[in-house]
Specification:
215 residues, single chain
Length: 215
Amino acid sequence: MPSLLQQAWPQMLDVVFPRLCVSCGRVVEEGALRHLCPECTARLQRVAAPHCTTCGHPFYGEMAGNRSCEHCETLVPEFREGRTAILCRGPGRALVHVLKYHHGWHVLEDIRRLMGQVPGYADFLRDAVLVPVPLHPRKLRERGFNQSRLLAQCAVQAAGGGTEMKELLVRVVDTPTQTRLDRATRRANLKNAFALAPGAVITRGQHYMLIDDVF
């Protein structure tokens, strides 16, 4: 069991270094999450059913059966189904950006908590092999970490059970950033950019899931 000092340590740090909301910048004195204030936490767009079976984007209101959203209805995906925990907007976007661009590893505890709270999300991950989308070695050296790997570790902890993470892919082409590219250019940019990692084994019948920071 954790010692009393270990249990009290986060509260002691909060006294010396007050937590600031990563979205609005106000002091976080209480709330369900440690790095979003209650107001910004309430603005998080958690994804529950009904939602798109391709990207996980939510539908609002009553829906009859499963279907694709307007962004995915013309796609023919190679994967069975995609799932999203929160929309990358407002406070959700702030969590991702603090992690990705500002080495904000402290927000991982909130991300892990959200993965466990979003209805059906942990169940969807359970007993799967989670495969983080890899960074090119140059980019990994520059950034110092792969945010998709950190998110996959959060997902493993949120799902529990037989869920595990395996780094089965490598990035073999150092592609330009995708941030300002349209869909067609993104696809062309990523063609042949990934390969199986040396020694990687794919087991027939095993459930594999790609984990990325946005989708």
